[in-house]
């Protein structure tokens, strides 16, 4: 039995330095927008763009969907090096931080302040954690775009065969590890869980343990007691 996890992170919209749209002969301002959404999410985004273009006769969003986030990152990096970046781009938080350090992002504070349709009430509709993630040194550098959550898929039949309640999923670290032990049978090439161990998983476990990745002085504390607890838990799952 394998338990599959969907991992995701906050995705942002960023305005890249030098990207302010281009006015064409029709008088429209064309705004180039690169993103990595496909499938149903891409369809929804395309509908939103079409609706925007229909209701804004003087502006046209030119969307350029990229095949994957990795490809999007590579293409953005290459475009920035030669000054051919888009006006808007979908980026991860870590990308936005790097672009801000490299002075290729434009703060959106003035756009928010000068937009009569963007009120304080509108901004308060966003969860504070999202708004905090786009703010650095008192300035907003991007805008929350889409957010996914972690979830597990599990095989109820495998739970039942192992004598476990198929309608109950482990609620604690210890329960999860015990379930993995019960469900694992190496000789049959069956393992209780299967997920990618990466920085997202590690940071998620640190927060679950009660810790943070930065202290109050913005210094990394990955080697805190919470970081060690998270890492040891991951190692414990490998060695079940």
Word description of this protein:
With 240 residues, this protein is an alpha+beta fold. The chain folds into two domains: 137 residues, D-Maltodextrin-Binding Protein, domain 2 (3-Layer(aba) Sandwich); 88 residues, D-Maltodextrin-Binding Protein, domain 2 (3-Layer(aba) Sandwich), CATH 3.40.190.10. Helices cover 40% and strands 17% of the residues. The chain is built from ten helices and ten strands. Strands 2, 3, 4, 5, 6 and 9 form a six-stranded mixed beta sheet that branches. It has a two-stranded antiparallel ribbon with strand order 1-10. A hairpin with a 5-residue loop joins strand 3 and strand 4. Helix 9 packs across helix 10. The longest helix is centred in the N-terminal third of the chain and has 17 residues.
Question: What can be said about this structure in brief?
Answer:
The chain has helices at 39-55, 69-81, 93-101, 109-113, 120-124, 128-133, 156-161, 173-183, 199-209, 225-238; strands spanning 4-6, 11-15, 22-23, 29-35, 59-65, 88-92, 135-136, 139-140, 143-146, 151-153. It is α+β, with helices and mostly antiparallel strands and 240 residues long. The model is unreliable at 1-10 (pLDDT under 50).
List its salient traits.
single chain; 240 residues; alpha+beta; D-Maltodextrin-Binding Protein, domain 2; 2 domains; six-stranded mixed β-sheet; 17% strand; elongated
Spans with pLDDT under 50 lasting ≥5 residues?
1-10
Question: How many individual domains?
Answer: 2
Give the rounded overall mean pLDDT: 86
Helix content: 40-55%
CATH fold topology of the largest domain: D-Maltodextrin-Binding Protein, domain 2
CATH architectural designation of the largest domain: 3-Layer(aba) Sandwich
